[in-house]
Amino acid sequence: MPAVPARSIDRGTLTTLLLEAIGLEEDADLEGDDSDTPLLELGYDSLALLQVVGRIEAEYGLLVPDTAINDSATLGSLLASLQSARQAEGMVW
Amino acid sequence: MTRVVGVNAGAYMGGAAGAGARAGVDADVDRGLELNGAPLPGGVALEDFDTGVLDEPDALAFPADFADEFDVARAVISGLGIAAPTGLGVEEYWQATLEGRSAIGLPTRFDVSAYPAKLAAEIPEFVARERVPGRLIRQTDRATQLGLVATGEALADAGLDLDRLPEFDVGVVTAASAGGIEFGQRELGHLWSKGKQFVSAYQSFAWFFAATAGQISIRHATRGPSGVLVTEQSGGIDALGQARRVVRKGTPVVISGSVDGGLCPWGWMGQLATGRLSTSVDPARAFRPFAADADGYVPGEGGAIVVVEDAESAQARGLGRGYGEIVGYAATFDPGPKSLERARLAGRPAPLPGLRRAAELALCDAGLRPEQVDVVFADAAGVPELDRIEAFMLRDLFGPYGVPVTAPKTMTGRLIGGGASLDVATALLALRDGVIPPTVNVGEPASEYELDLVTEARHRSLHTALVLARGYGGFNSALVVRS
Question: Helix, strand or coil for residue B11?
Answer without folding.
Answer: coil
